[in-house]
């Protein structure tokens, strides 16, 4: 692991590209509705049942990381939460993703939108576990 001397974030590789910002998790949650904040905390609690991770606020999103960033909360809507799970193949035979897009050669971003805590169901948890497991493979 490499730690940036400027912002003290930890990364799998030395001199990994990132932005050294002073933005915090609280900055993202400030002014958001109780619904959105509740969804965010529920999402984090569910991910903590899968494994431990660090929260990395960035300029436009909050990422979750173990070895690398395996998930991003990229939109805090008025009554929803948008999350991106980078996976290694397309999973388009499910209704839980509202958008799927390729990033480079290996990562395929799968986007989930939560309006209610029940939207984070067993099928979504399966893909959350998969994203976490893929991160563990990268750390080997």
Describe the structure.
By secondary structure, the protein is an alpha+beta fold. The chain has a single domain (22-138), classed as Yope Regulator, Chain: A (2-Layer Sandwich). Helix content is 26%, strand content 29%. The chain is built from 3 helices and 8 strands. The protein has helices spanning 25-29, 34-48, 122-138; strands spanning 2-3, 10-11, 54-57, 62-65, 69-76, 81-87, 99-103, 107-114. The strands form 2 sheets. The chain has a 6-stranded antiparallel sheet with strand order 3-4-5-6-8-7. Strands 1-2 form a two-stranded antiparallel sheet. The termini are close together. The mean pLDDT is 88.
Which features does this protein show?
single chain; two-stranded antiparallel sheet; 26% helix; Yope Regulator, Chain: A; alpha+beta
Question: How many helices in DSSP terms?
Answer: 3
Give the spatial strand order of the biggest sheet: 3-4-5-6-8-7
Order of helices and strands: EEHHEEEEEEH
Main CATH class: Alpha Beta
The largest β sheet comes out as:
6 strands, antiparallel
Looking at the structure, the CATH topology is Yope Regulator, Chain: A
CATH architecture: 2-Layer Sandwich
InterPro entries: DUF5655
Pfam families: DUF5655 (PF18899)
Organism: Rufibacter hautae
Domain DUF5655: 26-134
